[in-house]
Specification:
Two copies of one chain form a homodimer.
Chain A (H helix, E strand, L loop, with lengths): L20 H15 L5 H10 L1 H10 L5 H14 L5 H17 L3 E3 L18 H7 L9 E4 L4 H6 L1 E6 L5 H16 L3 E4 L5 H11 L4 E4 L13 H10 L1 E4 L9 H14 L3 E5 L6 H10 L4 E3 L10 H7 L4 E3 L3 H8 L2 H8 L2 H6 L3 H9 L8 H8 L3 H13 L3 E3 L5 E3 L9
Parallel strand pairs in A: 3-4, 3-7, 4-5, 5-6, 7-8, 8-9
Antiparallel strand pairs in A: 1-2, 2-6, 10-11
Helix pairs in contact in A: 1-3, 1-5, 2-3, 8-9, 9-10, 11-12, 17-18, 17-19, 18-19
């Protein structure tokens, strides 16, 4: 896979952006995401201190472009081939919006309801920890997303399942055990879409009828590896594809490391199921630890090279050994309790879109029904039902049985006091 | 195996015991070991507060016999069938000494040079911790020992290797890996002589030409299990058999738990190599933790019932995962450094008996020689050489190669400063 820097497609310019400050801010943010390599701490600090408009100004006139930001900006600005003005940058952004639309994707920014706020915890990773681990630790500026489910809700009860590309049969078994158990209990399995553990985790979650999210290290239109294109299509159907890179960006080694911080930050905890010494999954686990999210590891035989990375991580303080699914849920919290702590049950349902809400009204407490049947009752299409129901499962509203039929989840008891 | 309470053999009484206070104290201590079940905290506190003579008085006239001590004393006093006087108790003790002699064993008390002082750390385990784990946590009063090697030196650089009786082929492999590596680097492998992990640990250490110690939960003359009698003979030849129970005592479940505290206390750290949920090895590991000695566990596949106990222990704070022998040595300390910290190198060699010192003088720094050859040079018997050389290896004076030939160990560098 060779890199192809972002080239803005020819399209009309949005001229009225300055008249609408939130719109302008969104465009500035998307422009920065197109013009600067993700995760840059200097840029993030600039945005947090002076706002996104000022940060874009600073990048465009070169005032703010120092240190690591210079490297992060250099190649992109040249490749983008736009006039170094705010208007030019906004043209890049509005073309990006159109390209996303054409690709069946959308761009989600912090201004959107579906923005997963937990990724902003990445700003809390100290500069020293970040530099030791990897330079690009700052929160994402925006996400390119493919898939019908709302991003925030899908990630709200999510767990990362990561590991090596070269996976043993033991590792595959273990990945399936954990992914299936978590998916069946309403957790969204998040991984990186790679060969080995990642693919097994995604496929198992899909097979369990649950949502799964692949966080990519490249453009949304060309998920890597190409051999997984049908898997990625399935994920976009039943879950979400997610990336910080604009269309055209290719998957590089450094980008995988930058991407890993999002896998750790978007989820309630990370499980490393099998990893050799040099596995990138160890990097994801380190981010989980830096974010004070549970960093969980499945042990294996000490005679297996594929477990060496797991055992090395388990020797570090704060790593949690997990050998059963319930131990994971003990760390990341049972769904009922978390929902009660995070927000009232009313708000949980309010956050659903109208299709999902109509489907939820159609689901019965005791009698399990198929997606087509529920679609008919709710008055939505079969496709809409097949997309929305796994999301309702993922968020604990609905449970699915082995025949793929849905009924209402038992209500969690209100916490005492 | 049925219990047979200690019955003192008919033999002349040592009448002059009162004339020699240290001798009397030794006899009182041995008498208490014969009359009270080991590990009793009440008795230990009595001994530490008022001395062993007073404690024996208190036990004999019933003044001190309250609480758990009453249970610990009751059966034994009746079975011993002696007059409840100090003179009667000393008769029990002197007969025990004669019996030990007849059995080719010796009784070691804190008054002896070869007493392993580290076992007295058991007095530091709090009453609450002790009661939660097991009632009998106090230090041993004395040891019955079989084998030529000096007890203190043999245990000075020792490590416990424990695990389940029902061992998988994986567990056997792992036990061999660790026991061989440790034995070859001069560490004494200590275990409980049981089926499974214990036996594999002892046999591997013997095969590596090193000393190994089996800590028994019964009388020295009838090590349990009987099926291991030839193994126990080999251990007595090349290492040591060790117990707190007088001859005649049978192995009970509760005695194994009491015994386990000695395995943990006598060694610099405990490694649990494979253990199911209910393995007694977990009890040994808990004692190591309570004693602030490294509590090390080897992980295994989560699909194996034989690793469930290991993973449960690894989930407890303070347990150290080990997957390689060098990680164990990192915890318990390389021999050279420990020797330098504990005592000057002169004292180390001074502690050797004359046979060992003559053999050490015969060992060459570069040319490896066989035991018979060294025996001839040193002017000792072949049997003496075969006994003493593994002890010299165990203490890091000498190294043995795969052909079973010995040469001087490289001198550890003196610590800087």
């Amino acid at each position: 896979v060779k890199s192809e820097p972002y080239t803005a497609p020819v399209a009309p310019l949005v001229d009225d952006s300055w008249d609408d400050p939130p719109l302008a801010e969104g465009l500035s943010r998307i422009a920065l995401a197109c013009l600067v390599e993700p995760g840059n701490r200097e840029l993030g600090q600039l945005v947090r201190a002076r706002g996104v408009q000022d940060a874009l100004d600073g990048v465009l006139d070169g005032r703010a472009v120092t240190g690591s930001l210079a490297d992060a900006v250099a190649s992109r600005l040249v490749a983008a081939d736009v006039p170094l003005t705010v208007l030019g940058a906004h043209a890049v952004a509005s073309r990006a919006l159109e390209t996303a639309d054409r690709l069946g994707a959308r761009i989600v920014t912090p201004a959107d309801d579906e923005w997963p706020r937990q990724v902003e915890d990445l700003a809390l990773i100290s500069r020293e920890d970040g530099e030791r681990e990897h330079r690009n630790v700052d929160p994402p500026l925006c996400f390119w997303v493919r898939g019908a489910a709302p991003l925030r809700e899908t990630l709200e009860k999510s767990v990362a399942v990561v590991g090596s590309r070269a996976v043993s049969s033991y590792g595959q078994h273990v990945t399936r055990e954990f992914s299936f158990g978590l998916a069946r209990q309403g957790w969204t399995v998040v991984s990186g879409g790679a060969f080995g553990v990642d693919a097994t985790a995604h496929r198992t979650a899909l097979g369990a009828g649950a949502a799964t999210v692949a966080v990519l290290a490249c453009g949304i239109e060309r998920p890597y590896p190409a051999a997984h294109s049908s898997l990625f299509e399935q994920i976009a159907e039943q879950g979400l594809l997610l990336t910080e890179w604009p269309p055209g960006a290719a998957a590089y080694r450094m980008r995988f490391l930058t991407r890993n911080r999002v896998i750790a930050a978007a989820t309630r905890g990370t499980i490393m199921v099998e990893a050799g010494t040099r596995s990138g999954a160890r990097n994801t686990l380190t981010y989980a630890r830096l974010l004070h999210r549970p960093a969980m590891v499945v042990p294996g035989p000490i005679t297996s090279a594929m477990s060496v990375g797991c055992h090395a991580e388990l020797r570090k303080p704060g790593t949690i050994l997990v050998s059963r699914c319930d131990q994971v849920i003990e760390e990341i919290g049972p769904i009922g309790e978390l929902a009660a702590l995070d927000r009232g049950p009313e708000r949980a349902e309010d956050a659903l879109d109208s299709t999902a809400r109509r489907l939820l009204d159609a689901v019965l407490p005791r009698k399990a029904q198929g997606a087509e049947q529920l679609a008919a009752v709710a008055g939505v299409s079969g496709l809409e039902a097949r997309r929305a129901l796994p999301m309702l499962v993922a968020h604990g509203f609905v449970v699915v049985n082995e025949a793929g039929k849905y009924r209402l989840a038992p209500r969690p008891k209100a916490p005492a006091s």
